[in-house]
Each structure stands twice: as structure tokens, then as C-alpha cells.
Give the backbone structure.
Amino acid sequence: MVIVEIPIGPQHPALHEPIMLKVRTEGEEVVEVSVNTGYNHRGIEKLLEKNSWVRGMYISGRVCGICNAVHMQTYVQGVEKLMGVEPPPRANYIRTLVMELERIHSHMLVAAVMAEIIGFDTLFMLLMRDRERVMYLKELVTGNRVHADIHMLGGVKRDLDEVRRDRILSELKIVEERIKYYMKVFEEDYTIMKRLSEVGVIRKSEALRLSIVGPTLRASGIKSDVRSDDPYAAYSEIPFNVVSRDEGDSWARMMVRFGEALESVSIARYTVEKLPQGPAIPKTIPRATKPGEVISRVEAPRGELLYHIVSVGGANPYRVKIRTPSFLNILNTEKVYIGHRLADVPVIFASYDPCISCTERVMVIDEKSGKKTYVSMRDLARVRVG
Amino acid sequence: MKAIRYSPWVMHFNAGACNGCDIEVLAALTPFFDPERLGVKLAPNPRHADIIIVTGALNKKAAERLRRLYDQTPSPKFVIACGACAISGGVFSGSYPLFSRADSVVPVDVYVPGCPPRPEAVIYGIKKLLDRVGEHGGD
Ligand code: SF4
């Protein structure tokens, strides 16, 4: 049978971000998928080198609009270590609260996108409606809906008062109920089960070999979470469970996310109830660091996020290397699509919760005689695994 | 020309945004803000679209693609540049891969500032555009 090549994206109704999957099919069956990126490259690592430590905070937040607070946390906690500054406990709790709100809305967003892809538009609309509650909460805490920008070197920018604390608690209760309801829908709906279960299975050994991270890894039965393995912010003081499942398919990934969202609600509630007293906003902002380097990692909604910051002293970073979870999850899993039907490709792709904005800093275009080769990107991914 | 006033279909084009603007545009098109009362609907395809919402800082690869999508959209067509990045490059201005601003690639009708603009602002931008189309017949 002839092999047909079908491009999915970069502008595609099912994918809201610019990436291109080149799918080769034989009849309905997928025989090869290659990922083509570079539509979203913004040169952030270079920009970070050119700007001061404080400005870098805002640039790092703008790597990704969905997980901006975790990007800021990773950058800020690394720089704080270099500067020898310790944030007060109250600031740590507020940071944790913002990051957990972000995780809830991120997980609801991917559930909504998944619902849309499998053609369940009503569920998409409902999930988006209830996600607005979380956005409202985020605005209540930080003053911004999307870019939280709450971190500051040595603390946070905004404190939390009693009135807003009560509002958050009552709103969290509604959010929790809604998430439980959607979890039940995903568990029991016949169509959703048909479309998601046994689709895009990643076995435990495979997941380890491919360096998958985050909920995608935990859905393959491996309990690994930076929040409990290497606690940062206030996580060492907060009790929570690491959710995992053994199935390893697209459905398990969605269920892990719902489980995590529920955990996040209880973490958020804990931070608000047990908020320590004391100052949260720093009086002075440090401007320069000592020479040195630091690796800082954080559990983003999509998995482990890692910053490597090098300083030679002075007002700017010497080098900031960012490794995002989607980078590993998207590029290392090209083989998983093989053998599935064409209609399953967007489902599997969405089940990784891909974040293209994160992935796109590391694009290497080899322009030999005007020809662009994209191989280098995948090679890069392989080098990284080793 | 006036026909699109009653039900403009919007296509969202991500030209290298940080996702912040994209989720806000997406949020603006969902029931909480309910743009369908203005007849606004998300178009899946440039050939169905009347309005293109551009978000994000254009890099070289995306600029080419924006031009191509713009050419594929049937006239009359309008462009809304959404967010600081699409208007001027935002925090990314001066970065090496950036091609330029959205309005140097395609003609832009409405600018919606913000990083990211709130969904209300996006809808307000669309409304502004529709009013103008109503007044001048889009000329
Ligand atoms: S304007 Fe702000 S939110 Fe929008 S894409 Fe640019 S950095 Fe992101």
C-alpha cells in the first residue's frame, strides 16, 4: 500500500499552538511521526543573558503563559541561592499557593482541550467555564489573571489579607466539587473511555528509557515528583500525595492530572489556612550576585523544570539554560504513535499536555546551502537522554 | 461587506506567543464571556475566517506563515493584533529571532494592548472592529 504523508499543523483546529507533526500513514495506520518545530522560537536564553537579574524574572515568566509562576519560581530560587538570600516563610507559602492554583487551571485546560479533540464540545465549554473560577482566584491573589508576576527576589510582591483568604477558601470548595464531577465524567463516559483507553501506551521501562517527566511519567506507574523528592518553597511542610497510575495510556494520564488537581486544591487550602505570620514583601532588592553556578528544579504542571544559572558576578547572568518538561515529553515520544490510527494522533499528542512555548527555545536550524534540517533537534533530545 | 458584522468568524493565529495571550483569546471565546451574543465564533480554518487574531512575537518562520494564511483568507478580512508582543515585540523586542511586528507583515485593523489583554479587552477589540465595519462599510 502507498504511504501517504499528512501534515498536522502548524495551524490546526485541534492544536492551539504552532507545531507540526508530519504523519506518514499506510491506509489508516500510522507508520511514522516526526515533529517539526521552530514556529515559536523567541531567543529567551539569549535575552536573559542581556538583561539584569531583576528583569530576567519577568522574561523567565514569559517563557510560558500557562506555567509562568513555576518558571519564575525556578529562576528566582536559583538566583536567590546565588545571592545568598532566603525568602521569609510567609512568602514561600504565597508562592506555593500561586503555583498550585496554576497547576489546577493548567490541568483543567488540558482536560478541556482533550474534550474538544475527541469531539465533546459541551464538556470543553463546561470545563472552560469552571476554569474561570481558578483564574479569578489567581487574580485575587496576584492581581493578574495569567502572568502572576508575584515573585520578587527575596519574597513576593503582594501580601494576602484576611478578606481575600476567606474568599479563596469558599471558592476552592466549589472548584473541588467541579473537578470531582469532571473526574467522574472522564471515568464513566463510554465515548471518552473508547477514545482514550489503550491509546498511546507507554510502559514503565520505556518511560524511564525515554526520560519522560511529570504526569506522563506518573501515569506509567513511576512515583516521581520534584515536590516530594527535592522539596522547594513550602512543600517540605505541606502534606500531600503523589498521584500515580499503572495503565500508562492516554486515559491514565488524564486521570493522574485530575487526581493531582484535587491534591492541589488541598495544598492550596493548607497554605491559606496555615499561612505563617511575618513579613512577605522584601524591603530591598539585591542587584548583584557572587560568581558561581546553580541548578534549580521545580515540578511544573507538565513535569520537572530545570534551570542552570551561571554567574560570573555582576549585574547580568552569564548563562541561563532552561530545560522544560514538554521538550522531553514531545520529542522523545515519536515512536508511541506508531500502529495507531490517524485519528488517535491528536489524542495522544494532547495527552502529553504539550506546551510548545516551552519547547521552542532550543531550536537548532542547520542552514547549509539554504536548506534547513531539523534533525539536529531530535539529536539534541537524544544527547540529553544519555 | 456588512454581512460579516452579524456573524464574524474569528481565527486565532499564534505567531510565537508565550501562551498567555492564547489562553486569554481562548477564554474570551468560551461561555463565561460569551462572545456568541455578538455572533463571534471560532473558525478552524483560514478559509472560513473573517477576522484573524494575531498573538505573539513574530519570528522569521511565523512571519512567512502569517502572510500565507492572510492570503488564504477570503476578502473582506480584518486583523486584530492582540498583546504587547504582536504590537511591538513586548518583552521579546530586540531578540535575535524576531522578524518584526505584526503590522509590518499584514495590515492590522485593531490593536489590543496588554500582557496579556483580558478577555474583556479582546471582546472589546472585536466589538470596536465590528462597529467600524458597520459605519464605513469596512472601507
Ligand atoms: S503579550 Fe505577554 S502574554 Fe501575550 S504573548 Fe507576549 S509575553 Fe505572552
